Amino acid sequence: MAQRRPAAVYKTVLIGDGGVGKTSIAVRYTEDRFDDQMKMTIGVNFASKKVVISGSEVTLLLWDLGGQPRFQDVVDGYFRGSKMGIAVYEVTRPFTLFRLDDWIERLRNNIEDCPIIIVGNKIDERVEGEGVTREQALEYASKYNAIVFEVSAKTGEGVSELFEAVARLIARAYAEVA
């Protein structure tokens, strides 16, 4: 009888400014729901979901870090052990994209080669000619060798695809699943 490889568990941190929708993205993915009265994250929220990649079970542990400035002194400790960073900005507020520099620098100061995915949330609120375009996000992400996803935690658009890519990228990066 073939021995089954133990399930892989990967810690992933969601980073970005407060109000961009990190918690909503995690809740949409793990619980398939949206709460428009979501409370501000104080410190860190946790969620997990099991997925199967190439026949192997993988558990994604999502650490949703509080984005408000008053939590900045504690977030560095939460980076330890992370296998990927999901850097979230809000497509309707361009400054949240450029503030990701600080978040990514802090993550990479703690985990040097941590892969990054850049995620634009709230595409359901995008107004033509305003906010961050996909092209601007792609140009921004190129300096981090990151891929870009655009999602709506509210409608669920793109969220499953985002986390399928997360699981595959982590698994490939850490050579535990094909």
How would you describe what is shown here?
- It is built from 6 helices and 6 strands, in the order βαββαβααβαβα.
- The protein is α/β, with parallel strands linked by helices and 178 residues long.
- Strands 2-3-1-4-5-6 form a 6-stranded mixed sheet, with helices on both faces.
- The chain is globular and about 45 Å long.
Instruction: Give unreliable regions as ranges.
Output: none
The N- to C-terminal Cα distance equals 21 Å
Question: In CATH terms, what is the fold-level topology?
Answer: Rossmann fold
The amount of helix comes to 25-40%
CATH superfamily: P-loop containing nucleotide triphosphate hydrolases
Q: Indicate the radius of gyration in whole angstroms.
A: 16 Å
Main sheet overview = 6 strands, mixed
Which word captures the global form?
globular
The count of strands amounts to 6
> What is the name of the CATH class?
Alpha Beta
- List the helices and strands in order: EHEEHEHHEHEH
Counted by DSSP, the helix tally is: 6
Strand composition percent: 25-35%
What's the architecture, going by CATH?
3-Layer(aba) Sandwich
Structural class: alpha/beta
Mean pLDDT: 86
Lateral strand order in the biggest sheet: 2-3-1-4-5-6
